[in-house]
Amino acid sequence: xxxxxxxxxxxxxxxxxxxxxxxxxxxxxxxxxxxxxxxxxxxxxxxxxxxxxxxxxxxxxxxxxxxxxxxxxxxxxxxxxxxxxxxxxxxxxxxxxxxxxxxxxxxxxxxxxxxxxxxxxxxxxxxxxxxxxxxxxxxxxxxxxxxxxxxxxxxxxxxxxxxxxxxxxxxxxxxxxxxxxxxxxxxxxxxxxxxxxxxxxxxxxxxxxxxxxxxxxxxxxxxxxxxxxxxxxxxxxxxxxxxxxxxxxxxxxxxxxxxxxxxxxxxxxxxxxxxxxxxxxxxxxxxxxxxxxxxxxxxxxxxxxxxxxxxxxxxxxxxxxxxxxxxxxxxxxxxxxxxxxxxxxxxxxxxxxxxxxxxxxxxxxxxxx
Length: 369
Description:
BirA Bifunctional Protein, domain 2, elongated
């Protein structure tokens, strides 16, 4: 092939022009096969170099390989350019409104059952004239125990004296502000906010305190972290009958208008007298047995279900905030505390408190709005 070098230059020029003029990825693929495929003329020339005259073998081999590399580079560049252009065109022509719902539309999420229950309880007390206040989850020993009539050697601390974070020096309110070493812990109840609220507001005061609390319990009815709602009412001439009336409104709003409550004597360090509060069983209607005569396993045959603890605020607690107008000789009031999980378990028949925290969608979806 006496004109092999010239033919090689001609093939390269034709291929470069064709590649530059290609208007689609499919056309580029056809050009790649036509100029660089196994049966392409350039490929055949490189395979038959040995048949060329000796003076043409070097120029053809070198020029053929250079042409092949150049055409491969041009194809890659042109392919990228066409792909980008085609993508821009698709974006222009296939505009998608990302604000439209999916197809099929996805169901919107809903509040967790604990949040739903907390808000329902809050709504009841807001309707009764209470305000919602909050406080820190990492608390001083003073607010968590001492100011709630739990002195350092009090046996009631033993079940809650846990989850300490650090030790630091802080004002000892009881000793007139002198500094002392004071433990810092995760609060074990929302009751510390009672004292904090009374420090910020003179009487009368009507507040509820929702929030997380921490204890070391862990079983079917207890978890290391759970939620409480604390209530506090301080005014003149408040009696245990006022507490009973407020809690009766609560249980009827949550468990049904036909519910009744029962107060049983109990002991809490920060209330005196103290009472446990039971609600009449909503499964057996307070009878202790079901319609078929069988034993009611919800109330264990008693007709009553314990739901919370409460009582009249101990004068010793008021003594810690007496300088802010809470003179035990002039004002009195009641306090109560309930576990939100317990209310939700009873109301919805949840058998294990840990289900609230397992994040099993099959469980959570049952309580969607």
